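User: Just a sanity check before I run the rest of the batch. Below are the structure tokens for the first item. I only need the designed sequence back.
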């Protein structure tokens, strides 16, 4: 007997869709300011409100059960990109005017992946309003649409803990306050606060004359995609379009975005030791610094040449350090920005960056990937296994930051990591075969980078998928699979795959 009340999940998804229309007021205001695509967003808002109201009528929402909550989260992350692509279709401009491309771009936006099918990213081709909507989708998806709903609506907050746990990146939710809705509000306030600070600092650089191309529009547009580790940019050259001063400013904010936002609560409470002594934070910063040092050496020695940007030349210390810190900071936590076409680097440089893609940000951050805390637990459990092999009678629990990790948690982390790697492998093979089916030339490295870039919510890969490249030439079948991978990666795989099991639907 089917026991999941899917109608409640559909109805609550309708509520999410209905209020998504409110966020479209931002690009509508931009359209009014610049005088372009006003009708596009007026029509889109009406259509989205209508779809939301229809879905809401599926059933009255009372108290979601655990399985209804899981279904609601997964449904929302499929339906929201579907309605999010409406402005692209109504505008009918460029490569995102076709349904499969519009859906891919919308999924990439909301999942903060940053993979694009735009063949022409410029304000000359697309309106300010369309591009700001493209940016805004990433900002909404960064901290999480469901987290925002829990923070605002009391009927959703009843099951808030499970909803946030299903949506938030990482193996567990760190509850900051007794009420989960208050925790959700704090997370969004931190997120909003860093976004506003970032905009202000970019404008300071602009006023100071060291960032002449960074006006109000570009400052807001890039803030919408830096804090969510999204990587979309209204500029075809991404952050390479701006001065070295802007590039240096972006780096610390990318690091902030990949940090567990719950840790900033400790700073607010002046519990500095809880912040700086956090094992995951230490490992995250250590990984960034260590890999940056390796890439810097490769760049400085000319093994992986950099672009000549901002008056700097190849081999110069500042240029090599900036390029290394930026690319590593961007790819390790899945931001996807670029200041150099690393797809043209030598093999050693690309191999190091590919390694960084597998690490990911921190749990509770907006970063993608496997997550630092999972790798920490995996390595510590391997070390424990080696010790107990030498000392069979020893009892040695796995500890992290002075706390004992439960054995069930360790098993779950191993299960997730193995499933992640298995999906990456299968998807790589499928993408390679599907490209060959239409005669598309794709190297094994490009196929692998397409797979890890989508399931890890990273965005750019290597070869034609480089930071200034596009996913446009892939067959529609690959685009659908990669869209599914992006949703899987954003929701940490299990909340989606569990829907395909008979145990989920039956008693």
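Assistant: Here's the designed sequence for the first item:
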């Amino acid at each position: 007997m089917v026991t999941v009340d899917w109608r409640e999940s559909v109805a609550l998804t309708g509520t999410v869709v209905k209020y998504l229309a409110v966020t479209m007021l931002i690009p509508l205001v931009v359209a009014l300011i610049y005088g372009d695509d006003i009708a596009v967003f007026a029509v889109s808002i009406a259509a989205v409100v209508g779809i939301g109201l229809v879905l809401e009528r599926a059933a009255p929402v009372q108290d979601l059960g655990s399985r209804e909550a899981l279904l609601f989260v997964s449904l929302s992350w499929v339906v929201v990109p579907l309605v999010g692509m409406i402005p692209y279709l109504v505008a009918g401009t460029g490569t995102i005017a076709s349904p499969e491309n519009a859906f891919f771009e919308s999924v990439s936006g909301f999942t903060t992946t940053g993979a694009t099918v735009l063949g022409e990213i410029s304000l000359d081709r697309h309106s300010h309003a369309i591009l700001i909507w493209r940016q805004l989708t990433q900002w909404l998806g960064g901290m999480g649409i469901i987290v925002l709903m829990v923070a605002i609506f009391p009927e959703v907050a009843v099951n808030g803990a499970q909803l946030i746990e299903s949506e938030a990146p990482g193996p567990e939710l760190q509850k900051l306050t007794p009420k989960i809705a208050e925790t959700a509000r704090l997370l969004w306030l931190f997120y909003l606060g860093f976004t506003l600070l970032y905009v202000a600092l970019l404008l300071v650089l602009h006023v100071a004359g060291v960032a002449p191309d960074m006006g109000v529009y570009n400052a807001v547009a890039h803030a919408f995609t830096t804090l969510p580790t999204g990587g979309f940019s209204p500029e075809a050259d991404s952050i390479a379009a701006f001065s070295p001063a802007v590039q240096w400013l972006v780096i610390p904010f990318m690091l902030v975005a990949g940090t567990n936002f719950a840790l900033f609560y400790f700073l607010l409470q002046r519990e500095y030791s809880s912040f700086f002594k956090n094992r995951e934070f230490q490992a995250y910063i250590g990984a960034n610094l260590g890999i940056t040092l390796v890439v810097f050496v490769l760049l400085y020695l000319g093994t992986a040449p950099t672009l000549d940007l901002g008056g700097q030349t190849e081999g110069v210390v500042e240029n090599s350090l900036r390029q290394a810190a930026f690319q590593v900071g961007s790819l390790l936590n899945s931001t996807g920005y670029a200041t150099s076409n690393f797809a043209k680097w030598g093999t050693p440089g690309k191999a190091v960056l590919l390694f960084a893609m597998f690490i990911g940000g921190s749990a509770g951050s907006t970063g993608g990937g496997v997550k630092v805390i999972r790798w920490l637990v995996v390595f510590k459990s391997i070390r424990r296994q080696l010790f107990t092999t030498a000392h069979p009678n020893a009892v040695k629990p796995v500890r992290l930051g002075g706390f004992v990790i439960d054995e069930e948690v360790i098993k779950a982390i191993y299960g997730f990591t193995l499933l992640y790697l298995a999906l990456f492998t299968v998807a790589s093979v499928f993408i390679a075969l599907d490209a060959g089916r239409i005669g598309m030339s794709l190297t094994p490295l490009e196929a692998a980078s397409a797979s890890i870039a989508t399931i890890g919510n990273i965005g750019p890969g290597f070869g034609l998928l480089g930071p200034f490249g596009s996913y446009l030439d892939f067959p529609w079948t690959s685009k659908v699979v990669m869209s599914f991978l992006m949703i899987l990666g954003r929701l940490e795989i299990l909340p989606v795959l569990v829907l395909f099991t008979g145990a989920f639907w039956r008693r």
